[in-house]
Amino acid sequence: MLDKIVLFAGNFGCGKTTLANMLYKELVNKDLPCYKVSFATLLKRMLGGLIKADFVNNDELKNESVIFKDKLISCRSLLQNLGDIVRSVDKDYFVKHVGYSLKHYKKGVAIIDDLRFYNELVPLVSFAKRLYIVTIDSPYYNNTNIAELKHASENYDDLKALIKRFQLKHHSVAWLELESRVNRGIEADKDLLLDFVGL
């Protein structure tokens, strides 16, 4: 069983991956066993295989657009739509994939940078002694696509309310709320995160 799982949640563009990467580097520098896992990795591989793009290793590609069926469509919309299709067949498909990865780690810290749905959170209590959830309140960054903003994966306010109830039910869950990255400094974030997860 892992010692800790640290999860990041918030609207896209709020800095989840930036903070997750920073925490991961700090743990590596301290020679602590740590792993980075994402619910969307498998989804990114699926779409990447369809349109010949490496979304896993180039996170900025999801902000690009491609011609699809003679229409210009954002890669983020394609990821959202493909995710909807997969979850309509099995709503826990991506959750199971992450769970399969986590059960192979016997100790250390796993970092998940893309908590977006409540069903992703619930099973994680069985994989670690402690869960640390970091939520980031931030307005949408540089996006005017209404369909993307209204997608279920961007329903951050509802997810936050569910996280609050989840934390109250589980004593092994800690929760840290950060304000918009515009009002924060990266060095202060680093110290705050390390203190929060007890490292």
Tell me what the structure shows.
- This protein is α/β, with parallel strands linked by helices and 199 residues long.
- 42% of the residues lie in helices and 22% in strands.
- A hairpin with a 2-residue loop joins strand 3 (65-68) and strand 4.
- The mean pLDDT is 89.
Shape: globular
What is the succession of H and E elements? EHEHEEHHEHEHHEH
Mean pLDDT: 89
Share of residues in strands: 15-25%
**Helical stretch tally:** 8
Largest sheet: 5 strands, parallel
The parts where pLDDT drops under 50 for at least 5 residues are: none
Query: Helix- and strand-based class?
Result: alpha/beta
Q: What tags apply to this protein structure?
A:
199 residues, 22% strand, 7 strands, 8 helices, alpha/beta, two-stranded antiparallel ribbon, five-stranded parallel β-sheet
Could you give a short description of this structure?
By secondary structure, the chain is α/β, with parallel strands linked by helices. The protein contains eight helices and seven strands; from the N terminus they run βαβαββααβαβααβα.
